[in-house]
Structure to design on (237 residues):
């Protein structure tokens, strides 16, 4: 069940995880997955690698050029593998509920179908240092926008939504003015994050990364030489 980006080699650069500055960014508090019961141990989700925080500051500056007074709102960033596993298990039960299935009594076919749904938006909670989940590298971030009134900007879907609306270009071709507005908001987030050299997940409007395996894999078509990811997993017990 390996995903294609997990084949990208990693040459760990050893950069530290540092806190995301809460005077520049809005951090969702309490952290959403902690609210659901996930245990971050002695860490918080609001850590990223040093250069990734620097790039996020560039993204925030770009956002201010595009939309003065708008802010990046961080939903989740560094994620221990235990939290990745917790969210996969949580979503597994959620999908079973939606399908009217008892998660204790699934046929192998049903179980596979449910996992296929879950892994559409969640990475595998792999402990293999060659295939770390993106958020466990400290190089991936889930985020949205806040407007000048401190209100969350309507992106036409919720973070982590298991539906077609999560696709970044879901509203692209719509003629409906509200849908066009949602697409415009997603493009503002994309433009700001691109200024920091982040790349967006092809299936999730809110997920961006820089320097991890997925980032290298997503820009591979424009690379002339084979490139390695500079961030591997940061594993704490
Ligand atoms: C589902 C979302 N929060 C997310 O982070 N997805 C990516 C692919 C992940 O699990 O790394
Ligand atoms: Zn993410």
């Amino acid at each position: 069940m390996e995903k294609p980006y997990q084949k990208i080699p990693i040459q760990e650069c050893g950069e530290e995880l540092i806190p995301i500055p809460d005077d520049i960014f809005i951090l969702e508090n309490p952290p959403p997955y902690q609210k659901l019961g996930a245990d971050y141990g002695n860490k918080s989700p609001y850590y990223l690698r040093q250069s990734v925080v620097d790039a996020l500051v560039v993204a925030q500056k770009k956002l201010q050029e595009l939309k003065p007074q708008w802010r990046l709102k961080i939903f989740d960033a560094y994620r221990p593998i235990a939290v990745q596993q917790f969210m996969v298990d949580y979503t597994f039960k959620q999908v079973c509920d939606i399908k009217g299935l008892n998660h204790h009594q699934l046929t192998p076919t049903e179980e596979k179908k449910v996992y296929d749904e879950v892994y559409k938006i969640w990475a595998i909670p792999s402990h293999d240092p060659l295939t770390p989940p993106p958020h466990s590298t400290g190089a991936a971030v889930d985020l949205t926008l806040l407007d000048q009134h401190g209100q969350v900007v309507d992106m036409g879907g919720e973070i982590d939504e298991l539906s077609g609306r999560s696709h970044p270009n879901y509203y692209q071709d719509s003629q409906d003015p509200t849908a066009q507005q949602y697409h415009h908001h997603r493009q503002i987030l994309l433009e700001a994050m691109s200024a920091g050299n982040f790349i967006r997940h092809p299936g999730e409007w809110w997920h961006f990364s820089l320097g991890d395996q997925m980032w290298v894999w997503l820009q591979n078509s424009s690379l002339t030489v084979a490139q390695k990811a500079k961030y591997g997993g940061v594993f704490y017990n």
Observations:
- The pocket of zinc ion (ligand 2) is lined by residues 135, 140, 142, 207 (CB under 6 Å).
- The longest helix spans residues 81-99.
- The longest strand covers residues 140-146.
